Amino acid sequence: MINWGNILPTLTAFIAFILGMLCLFAGTKTNLLLDTDVFTIYTTSISNDTGVRDFYSIYVMSYCEGFLHAENRNLTGCSPPSLLFAFNATEALTQDAGNSTSLSSLGWPSSITDDLRTFGATSQSMGVFYCIGIGLAGLAMFERLWFLIAKGPRQTVVEASSLMLSFTMFSIPSIIATVIALQFVSLINRHGKESGVTARYGHQFLGMTWAAVGLLLVGGIVSLLTVLVDRNRSAKYEPVAEPKTVAEDSDSVGSNEKGD
């Protein structure tokens, strides 16, 4: 019979570890999970003969850019990955335009630049939280391996703590991504309406990051419940010394007096 109390927390930690790695490293290369962007900005109506790309897909540690042909994307490159990455629209667009013009002359709304700058500090923290969460999920797996080798209990407080801390670390960037999807993207669409600048959020990214959060929550709860059940079971079956009777106490006192 499968002992789910022993296997499930480690299994959830392993899957969350993989999902976290995918979320963190998506878009760091031109062939790596390009559909798993946090959000994408489209600039098709301001990019004619200027060098500005049709789209800029923003990921946790980088951004990728390219042109649209019908419904297909023609990717031209990705920025170098950085743990503290925040998309700089001014730098990206002016560089593509040959650094020979300003964003206002391209028809880029200054309000969107302000939006990106304001939200940059928050989005910068996503990579850090993912790294910590991934590390804690990996730690939970190694802890289980150690206790298996040492023939320890099914689950320990250390493992439950690692899983719950990892759940917390994954939750923070997931919440940030959700705010991007529900608030920030609509803000860009509103400010860029007259200039034809639009944005959309990444459904796949949201699905992956919240799946990792849910798995770690389930794993942490199962691990904690297993610890509590095993402790209660040990306490229930722990032998208790029987109290001495009056006769036994009298015999003990008598033997001590004879010895004196």
TrEMBL record:
From what superkingdom does this record's organism come? Eukaryota
Annotated InterPro entries: SUR7/Rim9-like_fungi, SUR7_domain
Gene Ontology CC terms: cell cortex of cell tip; plasma membrane
Query: Which processes are annotated in GO (biological process)?
Result: fungal-type cell wall organization
Q: What are the start and end residues of every segment in region (Disordered)?
A: 240-260
State whether keyword Protein transport applies.
no
Q: Give the keywords, sorted.
A: Membrane, Transmembrane, Transmembrane helix
Membrane-spanning parts: 7-27, 127-150, 162-185, 205-229
State the name under which the record lists this protein. Answer: Actin cortical patch SUR7/pH-response regulator PalI
